[in-house]
Structure formats: structure tokens, C-alpha cells
Specification:
Elements: E1 7-10, H1 14-26, E2 31-34, H2 37-46, E3 51-55, H3 56-59, H4 66-73, E4 81-84, H5 89-93, E5 97-99, H6 105-134, E6 149-154, H7 159-170, E7 173-178, H8 181-190, E8 195-199, H9 204-215, E9 225-229, H10 237-242, E10 247-250, H11 255-280, H12 297-314, E11 318-325, H13 329-336, H14 339-354, E12 360-365, E13 368-374, H15 378-393, E14 410-416, H16 423-438
Parallel strand pairs: 1-2, 1-3, 3-4, 4-5, 6-7, 6-8, 8-9, 9-10
Antiparallel strand pairs: 11-13, 11-14, 12-13
Helix pairs in contact: 1-6, 2-4, 6-11, 6-12, 7-11
């Protein structure tokens, strides 16, 4: 039976790793467990591992150097590594994130989603820079910057909460206080923040509502939220993390340690934002399709070939999608009047906004578009294409004065690039499936 694991769990025993792996499996982050570096290296070589979690506590002093060995075994792929525990000194720098034990599966899943996307986006940025350089255009990678951390502290001014704010200030953070949920969302919509600290106090429900509200907002979704709880609070951790909280701290944890954790989350978020902004600069390169802002046919072909080579070298999934406006009787008159042509730039622009920043969207023809989705298996790619089609299918386009607006539908073809397969052949398979569906 084939194994399709996404996360490598490296642990000497199952006291912490066992429940974590079981929980991640149930949440869709399939795991494989290794007891030592040799087994870990074998898994990294054979499987499309996207991230690793190392239980440093179970290895004790033997944990020294494990993260570097795992990164070396992962080869050219960028592999995010989470530490359970608190590695010290230079060893801590090898980890992308350190989290205290016990690590709740929902908490781990949320952090894995962010770290894996950041790693994939970083790889995409490097590839995109190379593709653009071949055509005489540069893509500024940008810098995450060294400005003060922007932290929003939400809740009543309790002494311990004020002490945490002071500890964050000592880290060089600008801490803005908001006493109510209304004020908090006003700040979040008006100013950029890199982390939010929520004071549970006597009203944990309001704090959880703020976290849930952030996760429902696409602009605020990735901002980490840390919940400060009383040690005798009745909050259910499973509910807390499923509501969108990134980490939990209590009175039992020192202000310094909590501040360290908040800053670490803020640092990861800042890096993610910097990469996303760099990828979005492609639209101003002068190489894109002028009408839609998407990759042109030739630029997409060159970049897809580079993406395919990279995916095979890094043992990552890569899927391609072809979307073409469905031929419908009611569109014939609209085409003759030029109204479909007028809608296509808006359709293409919507496609560009509906994909992830690390995805590549292109215009292949007058009414045909394509997507290249790195680190995305076939089923997930199909879901992404169907989601885009559904959103655009709910949009009304102008049909001229005196005529009702019209809507469009897509024929969709999806293919996952197979080992040893060329980019062109994968795209042909996706197009063939589109033809078969349209026929």
C-alpha cells in the first residue's frame, strides 16, 4: 500500500508524538513517524514530505544537530521544521518555529499551513526571478525589514496583561491597546499588525469571537492570534484552536517566554507578507498580459517548464488546470456584439486574485486560461479550479444598455504532473480532459 504522508514526525517515543500524529492524520495532514535520522532521511527521499516536526524533548541532548541533518536530507526543497520544546543557542536558529509541549493537533495544523505556504512561495519566488531574468526583467525579492513589530493587544488592562505588553515593548515592539472587540477590528482594518494578543480574562468567549472573526476575513486570516488564558479557565483547547487561535499562554508561563512566542509568530508572518508582496510585483514587470495582468502564453510555457523541473527535483506535487469559457447559445449574440471580449479582462483579473500568490495564472487564448499550482495534488487542484469557476459564475457582466447582465461558466481540465513527464504533456492532458468534458 502506498503512503501519501505530508508531515514527518521525528520522535524517540510516542508520549507526545503519538497523539499529535493521530490528530494531524484526522485533520488531513497525513504523517509518518521516524525514530532516528536514518529513518527520517529515508522518508524524505521517498515521500513528498512538506514539513517536519521534531520532538526535541524526547531526544534530550541527542536532539543537537537534528534539524540541520533533516534539512540536509531534504535536498533542494525548502522544508519547514517545527520544534516541540525549546532548543537553545545556534540549534534554535535551524527551526522555523518552536512550540511548547503538549502541541495540540489543530494548533499544529494551523502553523503547518502557514509554514508550508511560505516555503512554497519562497521556492516560487526564486523560480519566478529566474524566469523573468531570462527575459531581461528583474523581480525585486524585497526585504522583511527591521521596523518595530506591530502588535495589537486586545482586552481589559489587567496587571498581567500589562506586564506582557511591557515585555513585548522590551523586544522592540509597538504595542497598541484595544479594550473592546469593536475597537480591535477598527484598528485591524485601519493599520497593519503582525500579531494579535487576546486577553481571555473573565470573557474568553469574546476573545474567541475576535479570533474567529479574523479567520473569516481574507485580509486578516494569516495574522497570528495568541490567547492569554487564566490557568483555571474552562476553555476547551480543541475549540480554541479550531476557532483560529495560533497559540495559548497562561499565568503559569513567564511574560518573557510569552513575549518570545508572540515575536516568533510575528517574525514568521512578516516573512510571509514580504514574499507575497514580492510575488505580486510580477504584475508590474511589463511581461504580463496587458488586458488581464496574467502571465502570457509564452511566459507561462517557459515558467511551467521550470516549475516542472523544480517539482521533480524537490519531489513535490505540481498540478495544472485549464479553464475555458463554456460554449453556450446565449453567448453567441454577446460575442458578436463584443460584450464577451469586454468581460474577459475582468474575468482574468478575478482569476489572478482568486489564486494563491505562489500560484501562476495565465491567459492562453482569448477565452482560455491556465493555472500552475505548486505543492498541490490532483484533487486539491480540481477543487481550486471549481472554486474559481463557482465564484466567477456568480458574477454578472455588462451586456449593454437595455439588456440584462450575463454570466459565464467554465469547462475545466486538470492534470497532475507525473514523474518524468514534461510540462507540455501535462498541460495537453489537462486540455484533453477539458475537451472530453465539453464534448
Amino acid at each position: 500500500m502506498s503512503i501519501h504522508a505530508r508531515v514527518l514526525v521525528l520522535a524517540r517515543d510516542d508520549s507526545l508524538a503519538g497523539p499529535l500524529a493521530d490528530g494531524l492524520d484526522r485533520l488531513g495532514w497525513r504523517t509518518v513517524t521516524a525514530r532516528g535520522i536514518q529513518a527520517a532521511a529515508a522518508a524524505l527521499g521517498d515521500l513528498q514530505i512538506e514539513a517536519a516536526i521534531i520532538d526535541t524533548q524526547s531526544f534530550g541532548e541527542a536532539a543537537e544537530g537534528l534539524a540541520l541533518e533533516v534539512k540536509q536530507a531534504s535536498g533542494p526543497r525548502r522544508l519547514p521544521i517545527i520544534a516541540i520544546g525549546h532548543p537553545n543557542g545556534l540549534e534554535a536558529a535551524a527551526y522555523d518555529l518552536t512550540l511548547a509541549a503538549p502541541l495540540h493537533p489543530a494548533q499544529a495544523a494551523f502553523r503547518l499551513e502557514t509554514l508550508v505556504r511560505t516555503a512554497t512561495a519562497q521556492e516560487e519566488l526564486e523560480l519566478r526571478m529566474a524566469t523573468f531574468s531570462e527575459r531581461g526583467a528583474s523581480l525585486d525579492p524585497g526585504q522583511s525589514g527591521d521596523q518595530p513589530w506591530r502588535i495589537l493587544a486586545v482586552g481589559e488592562p489587567a496587571p498581567r496583561f500589562l506586564a506582557l505588553s511591557n515585555a513585548l515593548t522590551q523586544h522592540g515592539a509597538d504595542v497598541i491597546g484595544a479594550f473592546t472587540a469593536y475597537t480591535a477590528f477598527d484598528y485591524l482594518h485601519e493599520q497593519p499588525f503582525e500579531a494579535v494578543v487576546l486577553w481571555g480574562g473573565d470573557n474568553e468567549g469574546e476573545a474567541l469571537s475576535i479570533a474567529a472573526g479574523m479567520r473569516r476575513n481574507t485580509r486578516l486570516y494569516h495574522i497570528p492570534a495568541v490567547l492569554y488564558l487564566r490557568p483555571d479557565g474552562g476553555a476547551n483547547l480543541s475549540e480554541v484552536f479550531h476557532r483560529g487561535v495560533s497559540d495559548v499562554t497562561t499565568y503559569d508561563i513567564s511574560d518573557q517566554e510569552t513575549a518570545d512566542r508572540v515575536i516568533e509568530l510575528a517574525r514568521a508572518y512578516r516573512r510571509q507578507v514580504a514574499i507575497r508582496k514580492a510575488l505580486n510585483r510580477a504584475r508590474g514587470s511589463g511581461l504580463m498580459d496587458a488586458a488581464t495582468g496574467l502571465f502570457t502564453r509564452d511566459l507561462f510555457a517557459a515558467h511551467l517548464a521550470r516549475l516542472t523541473r523544480s517539482a521533480q527535483e524537490r519531489n513535490r506535487a505540481l498540478s495544472v488546470c485549464v479553464l475555458r469559457l463554456t460554449e453556450r447559445q446565449e453567448l453567441k449574440g454577446l460575442r458578436a456584439g463584443g460584450w464577451v471580449d469586454k468581460a474577459v479582462p475582468q474575468i482574468g483579473s478575478m482569476i489572478g486574485r482568486l489564486v494563491r500568490s505562489e500560484d501562476t495564472a495565465a491567459r492562453l487564448g482569448p477565452e482560455t486560461f491556465a493555472l500552475a499550482l505548486p505543492s498541490t495534488p490532483l484533487a486539491s487542484a480540481r477543487s481550486a479550479a471549481e472554486r474559481i469557476s463557482a465564484v466567477i459564475g456568480c458574477t454578472a457582466f455588462d451586456a449593454g444598455e437595455g439588456r440584462p447582465p450575463f454570466v459565464v461558466e467554465f469547462d475545466i481540465g486538470v492534470a497532475q504532473v507525473e514523474p518524468g513527464e514534461t510540462a507540455g504533456h501535462a498541460l495537453e492532458r489537462a486540455a484533453a480532459r477539458l475537451q472530453a468534458k465539453a464534448g
